[in-house]
Amino acid sequence: MHVSGFISIIGKPNVGKSTFLNHVLNHKVAITSSKPQTTRNTIRGIYNDDNSQIIFIDTPGIHQPKHALGKYMTETALRTLNAVDLVIFMISGIEPISAVDETIIDHLSVVKTPVVLVVNKIDLTKDIDRLNDLIEKYKARYPFKEVLAISALQGTYTKPLLKDLKKYLEEGPKYYPSDQLTDHPEKFLISELIREKVLHHTHEEVPHSVMVLIDHIDRDEKNHDLLSIHATVIVERDSQKGIIIGKGGAMIKKIGSEARKDILDLLGEKIYLDLHCKVVKNWRNKELYLKNFGYKDSL
Ligand SMILES: Nc1nc2c(ncn2[C@@H]2O[C@H](COP(=O)(O)OP(=O)(O)OP(=O)(O)O)[C@@H](O)[C@H]2O)c(=O)[nH]1
Ligand SMILES: [Mg+2]
């Protein structure tokens, strides 16, 4: 029998949702970082084996939004709850239950979709009693179908989890061709890989204020083996532009060269990456920009 279905991964920012998705797929389809609110769109990751196809939906971390962008992100994540066969509610095993977790549980309580609690980052704690206490607190708030503990980073207990998840899927066809990994076009992945490098090298408000646009991609006229990618890093303030460019252009050069390596891995061909930086004041609160940048209502 071939089973298939949709599983949404929700939770607070930074708990490891995207890391889990990449681990399960054995490919990087979602960028990750130690900064909260890394993921901004839903990202479908398609897992295939001999008897199943699981479409995982990675979602933006749910948080108390301060901008129109944050509101879109949180609403986008919550909108998946009714549209899937199963919800993975992911938490970090080293963080106490928070007000945001309570809010998420309130949302789970009003939908019929079954929910499993996945406790991630267990590699960071040896205190089993504390872990059990934490799990009991969650179980007291919501009747989870199951509770499973994993380390997405190290791949601990992820295989049994995957096997377990199939129990919640029904007999069904492949919705996507077996060789398709994600629903987003390459252009999106390229812009995300550039944004990831910005997240890795900047702090405080800068990572949250950054958007990457791919202006155009073309073959080099003289050297047809070379793909030219022209992209713009958009920030909200002149001071942030200064940080992105860095002293004598050192920072934008570093971001570009790290991104180029990842893009080369993704595309498997030689690329030239041309990066610029531009200020669009307050873009995170401007509906028109959010729509243009792809942060709009979509599942
Ligand atoms: N030690 C440890 N770190 C982890 C684990 N899973 C994820 N991380 C780290 O936690 C940080 C956040 O991971 P992400 O996968 O980006 O988290 P996320 O839930 O997708 O975050 P948002 O997209 O902001 O909602 C990264 O630095 C990961 O390397 C884990 O199992 N163990
Ligand atoms: Mg993420």
Task: Summarize, please.
The protein is an alpha/beta fold and 299 residues long. 35% of the residues lie in helices and 23% in strands. Strands 1, 2, 3, 4, 5, 6 and 7 form a seven-stranded mixed β-sheet that branches. The chain has a three-stranded mixed β-sheet with strand order 8-9-10.
Chain-wise SSE layout:
Elements lengths: L2 E9 L5 H9 L17 E7 L2 E7 L9 H12 L6 E7 L6 H11 L5 E6 L7 H14 L4 E4 L8 H8 L4 E2 L14 H16 L3 H4 L2 E9 L7 E9 L2 H8 L4 H18 L3 E9 L7 H6 L7
Parallel strand pairs: 1-3, 1-4, 4-5, 5-6, 9-10
Antiparallel strand pairs: 1-7, 2-3, 8-9
Name some characteristics of this structure.
10 strands, binds guanosine-5'-triphosphate, GMP Synthetase, Chain A, domain 3, 10 helices, 2 domains, 299 residues, globular, single chain, Rossmann fold, alpha/beta
Could you explain how this protein is built, in words?
By secondary structure, the chain is of the alpha/beta class. The protein has helices spanning 17-25, 68-79, 99-109, 128-141, 158-165, 186-201, 205-208, 238-245, 250-267, 287-292, and strands at 3-11, 43-49, 52-58, 86-92, 115-120, 146-149, 170-171, 211-219, 227-235, 271-279. The protein folds into 2 domains: 3-171, Rossmann fold; 186-292, K homology (KH) domain (GMP Synthetase, Chain A, domain 3), CATH 3.30.300. 35% of the residues lie in helices and 23% in strands. Strands 1, 2, 3, 4, 5, 6 and 7 form a 7-stranded mixed β-sheet that branches. It has a 3-stranded mixed β-sheet with strand order 8-9-10. The model has no long low-confidence stretch (mean pLDDT 95).
